[in-house]
From TrEMBL:
Coiled-coil ranges (or none): none
Domain TrmE-type G: 97-262
Organism annotation: Segatella copri DSM 18205
GO biological process, one term: tRNA methylation
Protein name stated in the entry: TrmE-type G domain-containing protein
GO cellular component, one term: cytosol
Gene3D superfamilies per UniProt: P-loop containing nucleotide triphosphate hydrolases (3.40.50.300), tRNA modification GTPase MnmE domain 2 (1.20.120.430)
InterPro entries assigned to the protein according to its UniProt record, in alphabetical order: G_TrmE, GTP-bd, MnmE_dom2, MnmE_helical, P-loop_NTPase, Small_GTP-bd
Keyword Nucleotide-binding included in the entry's annotation: yes
Length: 341
């Protein structure tokens, strides 16, 4: 058992849904380790050939490592490392919860919606404007996916220093979130719609009209609102109408969240990165291998290329424990284990 497999034991114990269980099991079975082993084997072959050239540096006509073949192999390895690193977005979302920020003006029902989605009274609900002054976060499962809901301070102009700090944090959480629920209880202006879309480019924006129980089936209000919020962007859906107070149509919002999360089906054979430590090591390996490719294109000497290849090997080795840079790294990993349970 290598270090990444040992970490998978802790992940398996801590798993909160089927997807995280499958990802931890895949890592424990050595699927990730095997991928890295194959990459290291190819890198070692490249490094060995370059080192061999250095041993025969007096014979300049000898070239054990064909540069075009080496470059093609380096590009192949770099592509694989990039693919593994990109999987961290999915892995981290499944492990930590897909971040969903609930934003809107004061008293539109953000805290009521949070409590409804969490099925508990997590946030204080009051008719007083500006009750929520800080960010409140908690997680829940919807269709086997962990969502991390973030209730934010209501957006409005205020002279209250503390409330303004909360509003600033609201905008920060909008930046961090993958999905933003824009909760409304009245028709927004065209400028408000454009501003919200602009601030959430590249994110999934769910426009949600709350307090539908108070609309008294006013079809005209529904039609006007739908028309004003209708999006020509693939990043947002058609507006939803709910009542956070009664729970009416909240199930439709939950299904919209599952769709917006866009989480692929996970199997025990999939290799998906869930550890920030692994992700950072892969990024460093990618950077070193990118330098290798640059050196090859510039016609640099074999010793320079070999040094960067060794760096790639070291970074990949840190993941499995084949090359640990310090005892501190090991201590940091194993402190998450609870001996005796």
């Amino acid at each position: 058992m290598d270090l990444s497999q040992a970490e998978a034991v802790a992940d398996l114990i801590a798993s909160t849904n089927k997807a995280t269980h499958k990802m931890a099991l895949s890592q424990l079975k050595g699927h990730f380790s095997n991928e890295l082993s194959l990459l290291r084997e190819k890198l070692l072959k490249m490094t060995s050939l370059l080192e061999l050239e250095l041993d025969f540096s007096d014979h300049e006509e000898l070239e054990f490592a064909d540069r075009s073949e080496l470059q093609a192999l380096a590009e192949e390895i770099n592509h694989k490392i990039t693919t593994l690193a990109h999987s961290f977005e999915t892995g981290n979302a499944l492990k930590q919860g897909v971040a969903v920020a609930i934003v809107g003006k004061t008293n539109v029902g953000k805290s009521t919606l949070l409590n409804r989605l969490l099925h508990e009274e997590k946030a204080i609900v009051s008719d007083i404007h500006g009750t929520t002054r800080d960010v409140i976060e908690d997680t829940t499962l919807i269709d086997g996916i962990t969502f991390r809901f973030i209730d934010t301070a209501g957006i409005r102009k205020t002279d209250d220093v503390v409330e303004n700090i909360g509003i600033e944090r609201t905008f920060q959480k909008m930046e961090e979130a993958k999905i933003v629920i824009w909760l409304l209880d009245e028709q927004p202006s065209a400028s408000e719609i454009e501003e919200m879309k602009l601030k959430n480019q590249g994110k999934k924006l769910l426009v949600v009209f709350n307090k539908m129980d108070k609309l008294e089936n006013d079809k005209l209000a529904f039609d006007k609102f739908t028309h004003s919020c209708g999006s020509d962007s693939s990043e947002s859906e058609a507006p939803l109408f709910i009542s956070a107070r009664t729970g009416e149509n909240v199930s439709s919002l939950e299904q919209a969240l599952v769709k917006a999360a866009d989480i692929p089906e996970i199997t025990e054979n999939d290799v998906i990165i869930t550890s920030a430590r692994h992700y950072e090591a892969l990024l460093r390996a990618h950077d070193s291998l990118s330098r290798v490719l640059e050196s090859m294109e510039m016609g640099m000497s074999g010793d320079i290329i070999a040094e960067d290849l060794k760096m790639v090997l070291e970074e990949l080795g840190e993941i499995t424990g084949g090359q640990i840079s310090s005892q501190e790294t090991l201590n940091n990993i194993f402190k998450h284990f609870c001996i005796g349970k």
